[in-house]
Specification:
Helix 4 packs across helix 6 and helix 8 crosses helix 10 (240-255). Helix 4 (96-103) links the parallel strand 5 (84-93) and strand 6 (107-112). This protein has helices at 16-20, 22-29, 66-76, 96-103, 120-126, 142-153, 178-181, 210-228, 230-234, 240-255; strands at residues 3-8, 33-38, 52-53, 63-64, 84-93, 107-112, 129-132, 195-196, 199-200. Helix content is 37%, strand content 16%. The longest helix has 19 residues, at 210-228. The chain folds into two domains: 3-153, SPOUT methyltransferase, trefoil knot domain (Alpha/beta knot); 169-254, Trp Operon Repressor, Chain A. The protein starts with a strand and ends with a helix. With 256 residues, it is an alpha/beta fold. The protein is built from ten helices and nine strands. Strands 2-1-6-5-7 form a five-stranded parallel beta sheet, sandwiched between helices. Strands 3-4 form a two-stranded antiparallel sheet. The structure holds ligand 9WO. Ligand 9WO is lined by residues 61, 87-89, 113, 116-117, 132-134, 137-141, 144.
Length: 256
């Protein structure tokens, strides 16, 4: 069954990007994902179709009025009973394990705010979960919603051709690689030509020795993770082989 995904936004055309391009477009065209946009402006009742108003207590900027949001969410509930997720810098941090969890749901509603945010009573009455895609401020939740849509779309069954391929960036020695839970960074990649601007492709990748290639990739993944995101390695138990690979990585690094 297709995942039923609804987005609440006053800028629905921003979503042309995910509707028309890449994996998310393919997921929609193949029927794996049903994406519907809901504009709170269509649920206003006043002459000016206002979706914003001034904050109680004063201060710069405007807020999204509660009534158009409540009417929008209550209307879409009839078609989409999924949990409502509000995209905001105050939410829990998005990680691959959260994406995996969301991709398993049959239905989901993403609420993209604008201005200085939404009236807190909407969060209290109609939001089940608040998610942040990182510690920075955007001017609305739309781009964050699109990040979630794309990260989910590539996990839906049938979207990457092979139902397993989204999880296949794993090493055959039982070691889970870059994608499936993002606990190890990816290794470096090379394509033709063999020499580009004087830089050669590492010899091992041209050797055809698949055991050695696998070993080299795991070593690179471990080494880069230790250098760039040491906290990811602290969370895992390294076995003797992995410790040896890290030593070799450091030795080779010092020889450069
Ligand atoms: C704007 C602002 C201006 C002055 C003082 C405080 C302020 N806070 C904000 C603000 O957080 N605006 C948000 C804009 C309101 C909710 C929608 N917007 C948003 C969502 N910006 N960034 C996100 C977001 C969402 C998910 N992950 C990272 C960022």
């Amino acid at each position: 069954m297709a995942m039923n995904l609804s987005v609440v936004t006053i800028f629905p055309r921003m979503f042309d990007a995910v509707l028309e391009h890449g994996i998310s477009a393919r997921a929609i065209n193949s029927g794996a994902l049903a994406l519907k946009l809901w504009n709170p402006r269509d649920f206003t009742t006043d002459r000016h179709r206002a979706v914003d108003d001034r904050p109680y207590g004063g201060g710069a900027g405007m807020l999204m009025k509660p009534l158009p949001l409540a009417r929008t969410i209550d209307a879409l509930k009839a078609e989409n009973p999924g949990p409502v997720i509000y995209l905001s810098p105050q939410g829990e941090k998005l990680e691959q394990r959260v994406v995996t969890e969301l991709a398993e749901l049959p239905a989901l509603v993403l609420l993209a705010g604008r201005y200085e945010g939404i009236d807190e009573r909407i969060v209290e009455s109609r939001v089940e979960r608040e998610i942040s895609i990182g510690d920075y401020v955007l001017s609305g939740g739309e781009l964050a919603a699109m990040v979630i849509i794309e990260s989910i779309a590539r996990l839906l069954p049938g979207v990457l051709g092979n139902p397993q391929s989204a999880h296949e960036d794993s090493f055959s020695n039982g070691f889970v690689g870059a994608d499936s839970d993002c606990r190890l960074l990816d290794y470096p990649h090379y394509t033709r030509p063999e020499i580009f601007e004087g830089r050669a492709v590492p010899e091992v990748l041209r050797s055809g020795d698949h055991r050695q290639i696998q070993r080299w990739r795991l070593m690179q993944a471990l080494g880069r993770t230790q250098a760039r995101r040491p906290e990811l390695l602290a969370e895992r138990e390294l076995d003797a082989q992995q410790i040896a690979l890290l030593k070799t990585y450091q030795l080779e690094k010092n020889h450069e």
